[in-house]
Amino acid sequence: MKKIVLFLALIASCTLFAGQNAKYLQYIDEWKQVAIEQQNLYGIPASITLAQGLLESGAGQSELAVKAKNHFGIKCTSDWLGGSYYHDDDRKGECFRVYQSAEESYADHSLFLRRDRYKTLFELDPVDYRRWAQGLKDCGYATDPGYANKLISIIEEYALDTLVSLEFRVESLEKPSSLEVLSPKGHDRQSRMESEVIVAVEAANEAGEIWVEAKTAKEEKQAFKAMHRKEKVNHRPFVYARKGETYASIAYQLNMKERTLREWNDAIGHVLKENDRVFLWKKRKYVRGEKEVMWVHPGESLWMICQREGIQLKTIYEVNGIPQDIKVFETRQKILLGKPRK
Questions:
Q1: Tens digit of pLDDT for each residue in 294-336?
Q2: Is 108 exposed, middle or buried (0-12, 13-18, 19+ CB in 10 A)?
């Protein structure tokens, strides 16, 4: 009887992922947070960005994605100053943009869609992925007549409009990564904790009371860890801010001074937004490893670059000789992420 139950459970498990591509799931797990960051910066739905990345790059396996780090099939334009890769598409030997990294491709995709050609897209509801998909086709992003339907199918097949639910579904296909993540059991506990708090607050509000949960400093830290996944960049730990959080609320939970937390994040005067990176330790002065130079694009801010790369803001100013009043880059250019080699 036990063997039958285990066999049925195995069939159910296989059925859950039937029709879903493991490489697609891995790609989503790798790039979903970048897509969310781009949504917060530029207003492009993360579901659309990920669907386009999956479709255009073949989940990062296409020739363009591998050789040119181009995940969105963006072609060269008259204002493009970067490298070129020639590849057959609608016509033979067309010019495509070359990037130093896939992250750069994601950033350029957002900036590309902020052109006048696509301005009607930003009049749409950001959660209406169907109209966004059709809008991209109507604006001429692709010549394929079925482009919109393909994007919609990917979004619905992989639930890209509910990215959080993918977090544990992807992990079930892989061995645990080096990232500190909540287990499915931990996720259920987190959801239960959130529900209990919401119910208690609502009940207190209805009774006209002010509801406060007393916690020790240790309990506050434990609650913070339970609600956040810790990641690392440039050997420094960080978390993504949740909706409604501030530097003050995070500092309180971590039992530290708000000003210290802001200094670690170059965030004096900065208003924390959902999905902003919050470093839990002072960032390094320079990027460690081979990545010492990068291309930046018009519209990218120095603060955003430093949070993405995990380096101190003053480093960018000092090693590149950038005036302190410059906050956003107006032209595409190379910048140093560390001391130039002699």
A1: 887 788 888 988 998 899 999 888 888 888 778 888 777 888 8
A2: buried
